[in-house]
Design brief:
The chain is α+β, with helices and mostly antiparallel strands and 1043 residues long. 32% of the residues lie in helices and 19% in strands.
């Protein structure tokens, strides 16, 4: 057992006895010296190196508490000295023994102390080798030089164990200073304070370190140490004062102030404290000194303003656990947690274990209670958010408080009732706010709805996993809500305001909307919005668009009291005449009108809308399906009814399937309105967009051209497909325009019908070609349907247009086609198929056959020049597309004749002419003979002669003069067989080259043979002339240069 400490006047704290015990222990057991030295180094040079201010403050707080007086502490840095002066119980001999003992303290049974059994004082060794404590008129010091001298004296006396000296030398002479106290001079105590501790700082770096510690000492110190009511900090003449006192505000429990040269800062705190007793078994892993302290306390302190609302933590209050002074254990919250947490030996970190677990659980429960004391919106700022990378204590607290917070009714609903986050509902519009109006409107429908003034982006709401109600969810929630129309208008206005704050209004596609007929429908898109004067809008005859009239159409008109611009933003349209007509329900009503029990209301409504809007069947082809009353009091679709007095009526055959509109309808709505819905006045135009030339082409007109579509439409499509090569995929006409009912024109009325067709929009349907887009993307223009139909079925002057020619047509057609009547203009005539030129004629699928038929007509006159051009044109035609004629136009014996095809030949070489003088010959340009023979399916002349030469010839060179006129590239013949008299197949001829050799009997014959063989037939006359008179070569060449 240790000897009792006995004081004396010279050594009031009996430090000599304390030194004797320590030195004796070291002398007997050098290991004890090593243990003490290591401990001091651990405390002073390791964990406690930055805690000197906190540890001195804790000692001051404990002294004040033991004395029962308000604790005051003055920390002064003056030159190289740091002094900590405090009020409270003076230092005693037992206290000195505690300071000098690292393993035991007089505080072990003092359950209210803030210090840690004496070890905290060891922090002074990190800063100083000379520490003096003055208290109650006495003083004690701890000095490194005196401690070293005492050890040296011990070693020199020879009483110490031999290993002690070696241990001291290994540590370079350093000894644990704080284990060897010495009496000191008590003069120099700070007036007004009971105890002061003075540290002579080791060096300038240490001074700067202390200066930094003092500058960062703030209100957290008095918050953590209730025993201190005032802390003064003086650094080189600059002073700060920190106080703790009772608040004047009812919304706070505590007030701290910081006064410095810049003024005074006051912080109000809301405080919640919990305390209790620990089960001793929980302390089993703690040091012996702690096991007897089973009481625990913890306090939450939150800064507030004068109204008690949440304020910001002071900048000098670190977000760490306070035990009770600041540790290095992070707790990133806007509140300060102070508690009796178990710490490590360095008092820097909270230690894991059952005590810490219990205190964190109690802290979580207390935190939930703390939040209930704040305004609900402010309490959100206290909710721990999701955090990655925090320490173990921080993470453990967040995990423990998460679920209890969800069950704590610290929130408030829009109606003012408390609500736990687990039960609450948050309206999340997708924007940053602006939902207050929406929330107000829905408060009675959703009792747990949180205030709309709260930002849905607040991180606490996500951390609490509050159920979110999006705009799409909202639309579903109120789908069956029974509210008056004005309530809906207020809701729409609130939603529009939310849209201005960034709400995603596109989610409201299924928003309920009340209609004028009392229904509540989902989704504003395509609904009709009545304007303020919508019920006063009238058509040209003064008919008003009353809701009762529109009801027959089944259109959905919004109730006037519910109208808001938001509905337009979401796809509703203003209910003018045009938009009502454009509504899909109007179209459906029109299409079904003929089968309706009473078509009259639909007809009346649609005729009024058409009159008011100016819409016609050109805009909405389905209008032609509107059922109208006829003059026999029955009903037919508009496209099958004639307007009384219509010019078209006089053009139709007697059995045309058209009725007449009832006169009453004409009187009420007028001719123009009836024509606008498709009732017939003159021939009508129908249109189809993006029409594919396939099997379903008729369906592209959706009934606007009757069930069967325009007459012959599929035949037109087939012919056009053949023209473009029958592609595997059907081409598409971006716009297909057709004049209908042409098949009902009476034959004797075609002049008037054509006159009608030649004017206005009808003319364009004839003259403008149809453009079709092929699968490979190419665009091709082809004859329009209407032009195609008229070419073969209309009558111009009593004949089909393709049987006539225009006045300016190719002269080769003059004898083959009759002239079109003068009253048909050329452009319109061409579109009808009236012939204009050979190229267009043979490009027409039926053109070549028609041309050959006319050539076979002996009553049709064709001269040789025209016939030559006809053969040239026909040579360009694909023979597979032509029907071979039975009779052909040919030349026989110099005369143009019509001969049986089986007798005719196509001349393919001029040397055969004398041999076939009695045969009808087709004399086509020589380079086209083969193609013409294919088109006409005739034999070539060379195939019909034997070519037997009956005379003998003499081989001679071709005169050189002939070569002057023949291009050498064509390799003209250099020799020939000269015959005095030449016969072939018994006929005397001038030349023959059918066997590959030139036979000639005359210069003219030789010239023809040479030029034919060289492919330069046109030069035969010049060659013949030079052969007759070689001296004329120069003159003939000069003349040739002029060609």
């Amino acid at each position: 057992m240790a000897e009792p400490v006995t004081a004396s006047r010279i050594d009031p704290f009996n430090t000599a006895e304390l030194r004797r015990r320590v030195l004796a222990a070291w002398a007997d057991a050098p290991a004890r010296f090593r243990e003490d030295a290591n401990a001091e180094e651990d405390f002073a040079l390791g964990g406690y190196r930055d805690r000197v201010v906190v540890e001195l403050a804790q000692n001051a707080a404990d002294a004040a508490r033991r004395a029962g007086v308000p604790g005051r502490l003055r920390l002064s840095l003056d030159g190289s000295e740091l002094t900590a002066a405090n009020t409270g119980e003076p230092l005693t001999a037992e206290g000195v023994e505690s300071l000098a003992t690292l393993r035991a303290s007089t505080k072990r049974d003092d359950h209210g102390s803030a210090g840690r059994f004496g070890v905290g004082f060891s922090a002074v060794a990190a800063l100083s080798d000379d520490v003096t404590v003055r208290s109650g008129g006495s003083a004690v010091c701890f000095r490194a030089d005196l401690a070293r001298a005492a050890v040296d004296e011990l070693l020199s006396g020879g009483a110490a164990h031999a290993d002690l000296g070696e241990e001291v030398r290994r540590r370079s002479g350093h000894v644990p200073m704080l284990r060897l106290p010495f009496p000191a001079d008590a003069d120099g105590s700070t007036p007004g304070y009971d105890t002061d501790v003075t540290l002579r700082l080791r060096d300038e770096a240490t001074r700067e370190r202390v200066r930094d510690l003092l500058e960062h000492t703030g209100e957290a110190l008095v918050l953590a140490l209730p025993g201190l009511s005032e802390v003064q900090i003086a650094v080189d003449g600059t002073e700060r004062v920190i106080t703790r006192q009772e608040p004047s505000s009812e919304g706070a429990d505590l007030m701290t102030t910081l006064r410095d040269a810049d003024g005074t800062r006051t912080t109000l705190w809301r405080v919640l404290t919990r305390s209790g007793e620990l089960d001793p078994e929980l302390l089993g892993d703690r040091p012996t000194e702690e096991r007897g302290r089973t009481g625990w306390t913890l306090t939450w302190a939150v800064p507030v303003d004068e109204d008690g609302a949440l304020a910001t933590l002071p900048a000098d209050v670190d977000r760490v656990v306070h035990a009770p002074t600041p540790t290095d254990t992070e707790l990133d919250l806007p509140a300060v947690l102070l508690g009796t947490f178990p710490l490590g030996s360095d008092r820097r970190t909270v230690q894991p274990g059952p005590v810490t677990d219990l205190l964190l659980a109690e802290a979580a429960d207390a935190y939930c209670a703390l939040l209930r004391g704040f305004d609900a919106r402010a309490a959100l700022d206290l909710v721990p958010g999701t955090r990655v990378g925090g320490g173990a204590v921080d993470a453990s607290f967040r995990a423990r408080v998460a679920e209890p917070l969800r069950d704590t009714p610290f929130l408030v609903t829009a109606g003012g009732a408390p609500a736990a986050p687990r039960d609450a509902v948050l309206l999340d519009t997708g924007g940053s706010g602006g939902a207050a109006g929406v929330t107000a409107a829905l408060a009675d429908l959703v009792p747990a709805l949180l205030p709309g003034t709260w930002s849905p982006r607040h991180p606490a709401l996500s951390a609490l996993r509050v159920h979110r109600l999006g705009l799409a969810d909202l639309a579903d929630l109120i789908a069956d809500t029974d509210r008056p129309p004005h309530w809906w208008a207020e809701l729409y206005a609130a939603l529009a305001d939310a849209g201005g704050a960034g709400a995603d209004l596109d989610e409201l596609g299924a928003l309920p909307v009340p209609l004028v007929d009392g229904r509540l429908v989902r989704g504003p898109r395509s609904l009709l919005l009545p304007t303020e004067d919508w019920d006063r809008v009238a058509d040209a005859q003064g008919h008003h668009l009353e809701p009762s009239v529109l009801a027959a159409l089944g259109v959905r008109v919004v109730h006037p009291e519910a109208v808001h611009t938001l509905l337009r933003r979401l796809g509703a349209v203003d209910a003018d005449a045009a938009t009502v007509l454009a509504d899909a329900r109007t179209e459906a009503a029109v299409r079904d009108s003929l089968d309706a029990e009473d078509p009259e209301p639909v007809a009346e409504a649609v005729l009024d809308l058409v009159a008011a809007s100016g819409t016609t069947v050109a805009d909405a082809p389905w209008l032609a399906e509107l059922a109208l009353r006829d003059d026999e009091d029955g009903y037919s679709v508009a496209a099958e009814l004639l307007v009384p007095g219509a010019p078209l009526a006089d053009l139709l055959v007697d059995d045309a399937p058209f009725g007449t509109v009832h006169a009453d309808l004409v009187d009420r709505h007028g001719t123009e309105t009836l024509r606008a819905v498709g009732a017939l006045w003159e021939l009508s135009v129908v249109r189809a967009q993006d029409a594919a030339l396939g099997d379903d082409l008729v369906d592209e007109f959706e009934g606007s051209a009757g069930e069967d579509g325009p007459d012959g439409l599929e035949d037109w499509a087939d012919e056009m497909l053949e023209r473009v090569g029958d592609p595997e995929l059907p081409p598409v006409a971006p716009e297909l325009v057709c004049v209908v009912d042409l098949d009902y024109i009476a034959d004797d009325q075609w002049p008037r019908a054509l006159a009608m067709l030649s004017r206005g929009p009808l003319r364009e349907a004839v003259t403008e070609p149809a453009r079709i887009v092929l699968p490979d993307g190419r665009a091709v223009d082809v004859p329009s349907y209407t032009a195609w139909w008229l070419r073969t079925r209309a009558l111009v002057g009593g004949r089909a247009p393709v049987e006539l020619r225009t006045a300016d047509a190719d002269t080769a057609l003059a004898g083959l086609y009759d002239l079109v009547p003068a009253d048909v203009d050329p452009e319109f005539a061409r579109a009808l198929g009236v012939r204009t030129g050979l190229d267009d004629l043979v490009a027409d699928p039926d053109g070549p056959d028609d041309l050959l038929a006319r050539l076979a007509d002996p009553d049709r006159h064709v001269d040789r020049a025209a016939l030559r051009r006809v053969w040239a044109a026909l040579a360009e035609v694909d023979a597979d597309l032509v029907s071979p004629p039975a009779r052909v136009r040919a030349v026989r014996g110099g005369a143009i004749v019509v001969a049986d095809a089986e007798d005719a030949l196509v001349l393919d070489s001029p040397d055969l002419l004398p041999l076939l003088d009695d045969r009808p010959l087709v004399l086509a340009p020589t380079d086209t003979a083969d193609a013409v023979a294919d088109v006409l399916d005739l034999a070539m002349a060379s195939e019909a002669v034997a070519g037997e030469i009956g005379t003998t010839g003499q081989l001679r060179p071709v005169p050189d003069e002939a070569a002057l006129f023949l291009a050498p590239d064509d390799e003209p013949d250099r020799t020939y067989l000269h015959h005095a008299s030449l016969t072939v197949d018994g006929v005397e001829v001038e030349w023959y080259a059918g066997d590959g050799t030139i036979h000639a009997a005359t210069p003219e014959g030789l010239a023809r043979a040479l030029c034919w063989r060289a492919g330069q037939w046109s030069r035969r006359h010049s060659v013949a002339a030079v052969l007759r008179d070689p001296s004329s070569a120069a003159r003939l060449l000069a003349e040739a240069d002029l060609d």
